[in-house]
Amino acid sequence: MKGSYMRSFFYRFDLRASARRGGERYAFFRRISVPLCALLFSAFILSCASVKTDTVQSAAGSVSVRKDVRQLRLSNGIPLYVRKNTANRKLSLSVIVKGGTSYLSPETSGLEKALFDMMTRGSEKYTYDELRALAYETGFSILPQVSREGAVLSMSCIDYYFDRVLPVFADAFLHPSYDSQQYKNLMTDYAQEMQRLESDPESMLAYRMTRTIFKDHPYAASSSVKPESIGNITVEAMRFLHERDTDARRIMIVAVGNYDERKLLKKLDAAFGSIPSQSYDLRSPDVPPLTVSGDPIVIGSKAASGTGYLEKAMSGPSIFDDDMLAASLAASMYSQVLFNVVREKYGACYSPSASVTPMRAGLANVYIFKASDLENVVRFEKEAEAIFASGKVIDGKNDDGSYIFSSVADRLRGYKNQYVNSFYASSVTNAGVASRLTYSLLMFGDPYAYDEKIAELFSVSADDVLRAFRKYWAAGGGRWFCVVGTEDIGNIKF
Hints:
Layout: H1 15-21, H2 41-48, E1 53-57, E2 62-66, E3 69-73, E4 79-84, E5 90-98, H3 111-119, H4 128-138, E6 141-146, E7 150-158, H5 162-174, H6 180-199, H7 201-213, H8 235-245, E8 251-257, H9 261-272, E9 297-300, E10 308-315, H10 324-345, E11 349-357, E12 363-371, H11 377-389, E13 392-397, E14 403-407, H12 408-425, H13 430-444, H14 449-455, H15 462-472, E15 479-484
Parallel strand pairs: 4-8, 9-15
Antiparallel strand pairs: 1-2, 3-4, 5-7, 5-8, 6-7, 10-12, 10-15, 11-12, 13-14
């Protein structure tokens, strides 16, 4: 499976989705296999920290949430969140702009991504070549990240070089150069991405599906560049958006590392304290739940000849819903049942999986990667659904080929431990911690809310998991989207 350069920022449940969504389907968790002896790694790290913690407990276990983020303010009111870490000399700093796609339209999808990409390609005082030379010399890095909720420009460096690279980072954010050659290079990159929508079956499937289910919804505006928006990604449009984004009301800063808070506040105030508070109306649009239904959509593609890519999309839990965690666990456990049935028993595809997308308007799915039995694969998925809906998971096979079952209740603790471990193991670096805090601030407006939600994992029961599965996966509804070879359009059965 492909990785994603944004995995440290948005904790993705499904690595396949992270590779093909281009930043659009960030997810709560990443499903990985880990030795049981390592599963409580994060709980150990947290319990050893000599800081204030809140502990969420249940009969199944507990997770401690660190309460050591200090909040300060720049002279213009921009909040600064500092988590001190003396364990290493690496410093991380992130400038966050809230709002995201609420300030875009479908026709300007990806404009903020383009703007933040341009920030890394030179500024008024430092050319792109000078940025590259500085990165080579000092290990300094600068990374743009975008989502529906906002955009982030992050930097990382050794403490020795912080005073040297901070002005470079600040100039990149405040004064991107919009160099004509770098703009041309960026647009060439985007054009190549658009070509993949026509030549890569996975990209084609994702684009057609999201465009269909998000039609006439606030999510119709995407954080990624799209074929319908690439012609509107101009320097003039980026300049206008940059003027809007440099608004003290919408900016937050996160710092993680061995910082002296007072000195840091003074330096950041000198760099960012002159950003004004503007007077335009801030946007916080209502995001209604998704309604996903309709006849299957089958797309023919020569690139998919001999195989098929299928995805069933259905309404899922909002990230704010009480059953979000239960649905995430259900998706992980159901993925294993899908693999046992669709792949192992019938050999009908290369890899099946289920996932939930944690956003304000929730989305759940079943994904079939490289199906070889187009006539029966959907029926096999239904067989797996019936097994899990009955409260069972598959542990193996008897000599006669029949399944060995366990109950969801028996296996739930192991899946919870996997989630906790994968969640914290992906963010043990200062940059990873900063990304987690950034996501929590963007999504919940609080630096602790994301960790607190994860800490509630151990209170989820087997009944909760099955109730969520039956509600989102087994209740019917949803819609299938498929890309198959042109010769197989009439062969797929639903």
